[in-house]
């Protein structure tokens, strides 16, 4: 029986949504989502770090090993220059970018790179997220 190749996924989100991102990471532990691998570095180092170049280098390394970027969107995500930067790096790398609301978010302003490219915005739906990741090139 053929199993789909594991997808390496970068999660882009604001620090305030870390608990939601951790919940998304748990999906990869479910037998239904065994094809997923999540890579993320963005909240392990404070955004206020005085060494932004180092932080960007580390995040860029993580993005370079992925093919899909999932932007977890809440009401304040659009105000994050770090999320914008992560999305721009993902687009430069050629990643498929998926914009999905975090659980409980029904309306939000999308981050600038997503708005500019007029990407679809999906309500929270773990089944759909798994399918979108699986179907991404």
Number of helices: 5
Low-confidence stretches: none
Helix percent band = 25-40%
Task: Report the β-strand fraction as a percent range.
Answer: 15-25%
Order of helices and strands: EHEHEHEHEH
What report would you give on this structure?
- With 137 residues, the protein is of the alpha/beta class.
- The chain contains 5 helices and 5 strands; from the N terminus they run E-H-E-H-E-H-E-H-E-H.
- A 5-stranded parallel sheet has the order 2-1-3-4-5, with helices on both faces.
- The longest helix is centred in the middle third of the chain and has 13 residues, at 52-64.
- The two termini are 21 Å apart.
- The mean pLDDT is 87.
Strand-helix topology:
Elements: E1 7-12, H1 18-27, E2 36-39, H2 52-64, E3 68-73, H3 81-93, E4 96-101, H4 112-116, E5 121-122, H5 126-135
Parallel strand pairs: 1-2, 1-3, 3-4, 4-5
Helix pairs in contact: 2-3
Highlighted features:
5-stranded parallel beta sheet; single chain; 5 strands; alpha/beta; 137 residues
Question: What is this structure, in a nutshell?
Answer:
Helix content is 37%, strand content 18%.
